[in-house]
Amino acid sequence: MIRGLDTTVKRLRHQVFTEVANLGFNVNPDTLNDDMEAIPYKMVNEDTPRYRENIYRARSIVRERLRLAMGLSLRPEDKPVHLTAGVEASNISEKYYEPPLMQVIPSACESCEENKYEVSNMCKGCLAHPCSEVCPKGAISMVNGKSYIDQEKCIKCGKCKAVCPYDAIAKKERPCKNACGVGAIVSDKYGRAYIDTEKCVSCGMCMVSCPFGAISDKSQIFQLTRALQEEGSEIIAEIAPAFVGQFGENINPRNIKAALIELGFKGVHEVALGADIGAVAEAHHYVEKVVTGELPFLLTSCCPSWAMLAKKFFPDLIDQISQELTPMVATARSIKKEHPNAKVVFIGPCAAKKLEASRRSVRSDVDFVVTFEELQAMFDAKEIDLSQYEAESSFHDATGAGRGYACAGGVAEAIEKCINEYYPDVEVSIEHAEGLAECKKTLTLAKAGRLNGCLIEGMGCPGGCIAGAGTNIPVLKAKKDLAAYVKNSTTPIPPKELEEIELE
């Protein structure tokens, strides 16, 4: 798993995002096309490290990355389309999105083998030959004193790998396909990866697992940076609790709040406020619907990839998905109650939130979505050193329960704590799943009636929100930092009165 590691792919993505943020902050309509055309030459030249076999291929890939970062789709391979085609439509200070969210850049894909067993140079040519002995198809023979696998005969059962005493047999898999829990990664006619949009739930795990950076999501940073420059605009940020540790050591909420104000935001709220509202509402929902037998079980709805998985693959379970507002939406609506003319920007770890915010029922509440990765690029474009800024006050003092939503199991735990506190006579059964493959198994069990009476939490990313595709640091560090943040919260659980807040 390469999430959070400072890799070449991560640095290239960051450079593209920073250049696009610069375009937005300093946009000149008369030169925008030329400025955009210049970026691939600035990023890739004879003086830069050679990431590909030549600078021409590297530039072509940067061009496609640039389009995705502008919110545009990739260009077709079979017809001439200019780099800046469609820029006029995206050159706005409002949300711009061309579906699908996730796309494979064909010129960047290395056509990795999907499933193949291969003998490495670790083979000792041992006397026992256990690999050939266990092969059910006689696909393994000795060639020049070493084991050799005949790919025409191999059925990819993996028995040879399991018995090799030297671990000399490697299983070669396409990393993006291996990371996808819903089977959305397929091959095109050239053997390159392709995303089946009918199955994809936009978690982004394929994107962060590809060592060639061939998969990317679309961004809204160009449009957001433009909006932040508009005179008289009121743009308010809501930031997910997973932000802890994402912007460097010793960077606290006051640093982040002040830096966001420096970017042009008029206010900053913590999304854990919406989580607090949701935890109390979900507790009541469980007691009212599941305990009474009206519903067999209750599925949380905070994770958009989990919710999309349930709707796409288990349509019979739609009625069991919670109808409570997600923390992002609940926080946005509470902000707009006080600031009806404001634009609200969700800042978080999740790529799929961009799709949630594009739903017809949510569009009026959440105006932009950017990830922590994209926000860091915006800070760098403005040369903002967060350690040099500190606000007089922190965010809304959310509870530990609400902040704990960011870690796998945290949503169910928060709801359980509320049930134990406010409905002490009610016994609650909890199930949680993380990663789409595990989520799919859990929903299968639920459909079969084996999880009746349960509150079921699903997280599309293994580890939860702290492991989202738009994060900056390794998962284990994020988990540790979040635990400290939760522990230091003034209040452990939200008051029951939050149930009465009207945000519909």
Report on the structure:
The structure is a single chain. This protein is 37% helix and 12% strand. The strands form 6 sheets. It has a 4-stranded parallel beta sheet, with helices on both faces. A 3-stranded parallel beta sheet has the order 11-15-14. It contains 19 helices and 15 strands. The mean pLDDT is 94. It has a domain at 115-173: Alpha-Beta Plaits (2-Layer Sandwich), CATH 3.30.70. With 504 residues, it is α/β, with parallel strands linked by helices. Helix 14 (353-356) links the parallel strand 12 (343-348) and strand 13 (368-371).
> Over the alpha carbons, how many angstroms does the gyration radius reach?
25 Å
Please identify the top-level CATH class of the domain at 115-173: Alpha Beta
Globally, the shape reads: globular
SS elements, strand count: 15
Helix/strand-derived category reads alpha/beta
Main attributes?
504 residues; Alpha-Beta Plaits; single chain
Spell out the blueprint of helices and strands.
Blueprint: H1 8-25, H2 32-43, H3 55-69, H4 87-90, E1 102-104, E2 115-119, H5 130-134, E3 140-143, E4 146-149, H6 159-163, E5 169-173, H7 175-179, E6 185-187, E7 193-195, H8 205-209, E8 215-217, H9 221-229, E9 235-239, H10 253-263, E10 267-270, H11 272-290, E11 298-299, H12 304-313, H13 327-338, E12 343-348, H14 353-356, E13 368-371, H15 372-381, H16 400-403, H17 410-422, E14 429-434, H18 436-447, E15 454-459, H19 475-487
Parallel strand pairs: 9-10, 9-12, 11-15, 12-13, 14-15
Antiparallel strand pairs: 1-8, 2-5, 3-4, 6-7
